[in-house]
Amino acid sequence: MVILAEDVRRRYGGTAALDGVSLAVNEGEVFALVGPNGAGKTTLVRALTGTTVVDGEVSVLGEAPDEVDPERVGLLPQEFDPAERLTARELVAYYAGLYETARDPDAVLADVGLEGADTRKPYEDLSGGQKRRTCVATALVNDPDVLFLDEPTTGIDPAGRRTLWSLLSDLADGGTTVLLTTHYMEEAETLADRVGLLADGQLVAVGAPGDLVASHGGDSRLELDIPADAEGAAATALEMAGYQLLPDETALAVTGIDPREIGAVVETLEDERIPYGAITWKQPDLEDVYLSLTGTEVTAGGEPVPRRRGRMSAQGGGS
Amino acid sequence: MGAVGRIGSETTAATKAFLRRRTAVFFTFFFPAIIILIFGALVQTQPTGGGLFTEPAGYYVPGYLAVVVLFTPLSRVGSEVARHREGNRFEKLATTPLSRAEWLLAQTLVNVGIIGAAAVLILVLVVLVTGAASSLVPSPLLLPFVALGVALFCGLGAVLGRVADSQDGVVAAANGIALPLLFLSETFVPPDLLPAWFAPLRYLSPLTYFARGIREATYRPPGQLASFTPNANVFEASGPLLELAVLAGLTVLFFLAGAYAIPTTD
Known about the structure:
The complex is a heterodimer of chains A (319) and B (266).
Chain A: E1 3-12, E2 15-25, E3 30-34, H1 41-49, E4 55-60, E5 73-76, H2 88-96, H3 105-111, H4 128-140, E6 146-150, H5 158-173, E7 177-182, H6 185-191, E8 194-199, E9 202-207, H7 209-216, E10 221-224, H8 231-240, E11 244-245, E12 252-255, H9 262-271, E13 279-282, H10 286-294, E14 296-298, E15 304-306, H11 311-314
Parallel strand pairs in A: 3-7, 3-8, 5-6, 6-7
Antiparallel strand pairs in A: 1-2, 1-4, 8-9, 10-12, 10-13, 11-12, 14-15
Chain B: H1 2-19, H2 22-43, H3 61-86, H4 89-93, H5 100-130, H6 142-163, H7 167-183, H8 206-218, H9 230-236, H10 238-261
C-alpha cells in the first residue's frame, strides 16, 4: 500500500472533521475523495501529508507523513495562493529549485496546458483556470511518486479539465499514485480507479465508480416535467398503465423501464391529455450513489444540499 | 543541490516578489529618508542644549539605521508569514525539502540586501543633510551590526506572523512593538533623559545593543575625532565587539524562535 489510513480522527472544537476514516490506496491507482464542502476531504489530505495532527494510523510510502522523503511527494493544497507577483514560469521554477531533481518547468507547464506568452505573465494576471493549472504544475514539478491534489480542477474550464484528467491518467499509468479530492462527480467517475465518498467526516462507501453505481445508484429512470396541477393526474394515469413511479423524487419519475419504452410512456400522457415539458432519461451515477447513501446532494459549487422531499409526498400523494 | 540551492531558490523568488511590489519598495526607502529630513533638517540639534536633539548629529546615526533595521523586517517578514498562511503556502512547503529555518534564512537574506541598501542611503543622507561627517568615523562593524539586527527582527517578525491572525494584525502588532523600542533603546533619546527607574529596562531591548554598538564603533564627539584612527576603533575598542557579541547571541535566539514559530500544520 502506498497510502494507508486507519481509524483516523480529527476534531475542530465540537465538530468531527474526520470520524474514524480508514482507506488504502495502491501504487499507480487514482483514488478520488468525493463529498461536499465540509465533508472532511481537505482534513484527510492534510492528515495524509502530515500538515494536521490526527488520531489514528497514517502512512505514506510506508512512513509517517512527516517522515516520508519529500522528494517523492507532490501536493496541491486547497485554495493554494502562491506569490502573485511571480510569473507562471518563475513560480514553477521556484518550486523546482526546492528539490534535488526536478523536471523542466516549461515542460511541466506545457503538460498542464500552459505555453508561450501565458507562462511569462504574472500569476495575478492569469485567468482563474490558468492559475489553477499553474498550481497543479507546482505539484508535478518534482515528478512525485505520490501526488495529493485537493480540488485540482476547480475553476478550470471543461476542456482544461479533460487535459488534466488525461495527464493524471498518464501519470498513474506510469506508476504515480494519485489521491485527489473533488466535488465534481463526473471527474471522479471518469478519472478515478476507486472512489471514497465522504460525508460528515465518515467514509460512507469505497469502491470502483461502476461498482458503487451498480450497488447504490438505483435504477435508471425517466424524469417527466409535468405542471404541478397535472402531476396527480399524471401519476394516476401512469400507474394505471402499469408503470412504477419513484416515490421520493423532486420530479415525477418512472422507473423499471427500458429506454425503448419512452414512447409508450409519452403516449400514455397524451392519451390522457396531460401536458408535459422536458422528458429526461437518467442513468444512475455517482451523484445518485451519494444521494442514496447520505441523503445529500452536492451542488456544482460543492455545497451540500439536503434531499428535498418529492412533490407527490408534499402534496399528500397523487398516486 | 542541497540546502544552498533551496535557500537560493527561495531567496530569488522572495526578492523578485518584493521588488515587484513597487509601493513597498518605495516606502522602504522613503520612510527612513523622510525621518532624516524631518529630524535632521527640520528639528535639528538645539544650539542651546535640551529638546529632542541634544547631541551632535553623528550620535543619531544608530537611530536612523534602527528605523529600517527594526520596522522593515518586523512588518515584512510578519506580513510574509501571514500571506503564506492565508495562501496555504506553508502547507505546500511542509511537503517539500525546504525547512522552516531555510525559509526564514532566505527571507533574512532578502531583508539584509534591501535594508543594506537603505542603510547606505541613510548614511549618505545623514552626512549630506545633517552634517554628521564631523562626528562620524567609518567602521566595517556597521555591516555585521546591520546584518545581525535585521536577522534578529526577521525572527521576531516570524513570531508576530504566527501570532497575529492577518496581515493587518501583523502591521498593527509590528508598529506597537517597534515604536516604543525605537525611542527607548538609546537610539534617539539619550539614557540620561529617561527616568532612573527605567534605566535597567532598556537592556531588555535588543535594539539597545545594536544602537550602542554602532555608536561605539562610529561616533566620536567633537574634539575626539582628530586623534582617532579607524583601526583602533574596530580592533582595539572592546565596546562595540562586546555589543556585537551580545547582539549575535540574541540574534541566534530570536532566529530560532522565529523558525520554530513558522507553522507546518494547521
